[in-house]
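[SOLVED] Need 3D model of a two-part complex

Original post:
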Amino acid sequence: MSSLSTVDSDKTVAAFESRRGTHVWHVLSRDPLAIISITIILIFLLVAIFAPVLAPYPEQGAGKPSPDTLFLPPSREHLFGTDDLGRDVLSRVMYGARPAFLIPLMVVVSAVAIGASLGAIAGYKGGWIDEVIMRVTDLFLAFPSLLLAMAITAALGRGLQNAAIALIISWWPWYTRLVRGVAVSLRERPFVEAAQSIGVRDSIIILRHILPNSISPILVQVTVDMGTVILVAGGLAFIGLGTQPPNADWGLMISSGRTSVLNQGWIALFPALAIFVLILAFNLLGDVLRDIFDPRQYQ
Amino acid sequence: MRRLEFVVRRIIGAIFVLIGVSIITFSLARVVPSNAAALYIGPRARPEEIERVKEELGLNEPLPVQYGVYMRDLLQGDMGNSVSTKRPVTQELTDRLPATLELLFVGMTIAIVFGVPLGILSAYRQGRGSDILIRIVSIIGVSVPAFALGLLLQIVFFRSLELLPLSGRIANDMRFISPVEVITGFYLIDTVVTQNWIAAKDSLLHIILPAVTLAAYPMALIARMTRSSMLEVLSQDYIRTARAYGLKERFIVYIYALKNAIGPTLTVIGLTFAFAITGTFFVEIIFNWPGLGLFTVRSLLNLDYPAIMGITLFGAFMYVIINLIVDLLQAWVDPRISLQ
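Solution:
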């Protein structure tokens, strides 16, 4: 049984290695869906970075009310109309792209750092260390992530930073599982055994051999997760636990535009469109990457 | 025999997970906050009250003793009193549970009834027009946040088409016209049992938009998973053999292939059920649905700490139970699982 599974995972790891690097770009650059989604993500990213320059009303985008222009429908001056405090919705949507990228990036990067190291240790060391780490991981996976994030934000207090911390706490276990799977399949490979036999320290083996070989599956998972974290972070902001006013955030904008949605639909619909398009782009890219190499085979 | 062993092992496993879950919620409730007692009575607590609660919760005792107190209260169904309503949290939760469960069941039924056949159709017609269309719809389904979809549906079906009610569980004037006699708390069941057809129709109309909003994400995920596992099964040798024998195509797809492809779909159904628990929160806010979600959000905004912790524990409990049921179902459908 065990010898059989080693052969299998050997093959998949080898397949991974040969497909890494330039090959990925080659496949991506020929896939129209991949090109469209990467373009959309890059446009949103540029808007997020250069929001103060690009926004037609940067001050309003940052939150300054404008009492003379309440509830204006979309027009040439205000392409997306204005909101309940008279602010230009287009500028708000542009500023809202900033937390939309910032929170998921913080969450995913930290979750990968924590999850990957624990997963690598668990899978490589095996034995009771593996058992302890994985049982704790299972525990955190036993919570619906949004529920855990809500409880943590409630305990820590509202705000962007605490929302990010809460999401990290509920997200790292997924990466632990993923990387552990890779580590287990690598543990008995000849190059790892060779390193062990010449007395290379475990920490060096994990850093030099286990983690670099986990990069591809992690990358795919990150792409898929970006969409999900944007969704969940938007949800936290929507219920008032994430970004706080007057800062712009799509979830928050949808929440405050909700009361006037039947008459001034543009206030909620444009941020809703923005969050939908960005999540869609990440999901499409994730799908394409998953077809190239499937990270689920390690779970 | 092996199967029984598997069932017992899974149940024991679930119990350990629940104990772990209680330790995490205990830490969130008592250890993480700098002043748990103050949180416990709410923002306008007087110092002597805080002292009293500290004593009551045993917050001056060592942590293991505190956990003991916490678990003793919990096992007696005591999760403290809600700060805003002053009623026991357990009571608040059980009062609102039927509304949420009704929404959850109707939503998940829609998701499964449409998601599974769409996934099968998509796999069967791989690469053709209907497959591409279903795949586009399902990727849109997993990308659109419930709070955005709900608003869109309200605009279309309430304002533009004037077909369906905007929000709520039943029309406000129904209690004068034809009041619902509450038996189970599920309006759809209660009204039918008491043959209150006016209220039955009204509550059915009210649940359509929220249930569809809730169903979108799980339906899309279920369709995607069914498609990919059906594709895998349809390419197997035994399917080709069945075709060579000249068995009816419908028989091959729905009986032979589906039985082996349904396992991963069951897992996804379990997972999405969990998503749907928190999904109901957003749907309830948008459609003003008087269930757990609306209560949760109100508690979060009022910093109603005992209520928040009660909901977290309850949600995790439901999640663990659902996952257990899915695991057992899976072992029943696919005997290979319990042999592993």
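Edit: Chain A touches chain B at residues 135, 138-140, 142-144, 146-148, 150-152, 154-156, 227, 231, 234-235, 238-241, 251, 254-255, 258, 261-262, 265, 268-269, 272-273, 275-276, 279-280, 283-284, 287 (CB under 8 Å).
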